[in-house]
C-alpha cells in the first residue's frame, strides 16, 4: 500500500466532482432532473467527505462468473455476471457506528466492452437518508484485476441512480448479496 494519500487533495478532487455533477444535473439536456424542475434544482445532497470510507478492498476474481438476475425499478429483469467480490474492513472514529468486515459483489454486463465494474448496494441508510432503491458505485481498474489484489474502494463516490429523479429511467436494484448490515454515511444522500 502506498502512503502517498493526501487527504486535502482527495477532498478537493471529490468536491470538484460533486460541483461538476451538480452542474450536469442543473443544465445538461440528459440530466435526470425533469426540465420543468431544473430551475429550482439547487444541487444534490451529500454526506460530508470522510476518508474513513475510502477503504482498501481485497479482490476475489471469479474466473467463471455466475450470472445474476437483478430486478429493476420498472419490474423488468436484467442479467449481469458476478465477476469479482471486494472484501473490506470498516474502521471508523464514530463509536455509534459499528466496524467490521464486509463484502460487495462487482458485476458486468455479459458483453462488458471495457465497462467499469458495477457495484449496486444497500445499507442501513437506504430508504432513510439515501434512495430507497439503493445506491451505485463503479470501479474502473486500468487493467484486469487479479485474485488477492488490493484496490481502493471509495464509498464517498456512492451515487443515487437516475430513476430516483425521474420515472423515465429503469434502474437495477441491488441483489440481496449486496445488502450491507451497516450504516454507510458516505456519498450521495437522497430524501424524498
TrEMBL record:
Gene3D superfamilies: 6.10.250.1680
Spans annotated as Disordered: 18-40
Pfam families: DUF1684 (PF07920)
UniProt-recorded name of the protein: DUF1684 domain-containing protein
Organism listed in the record: Halostagnicola kamekurae
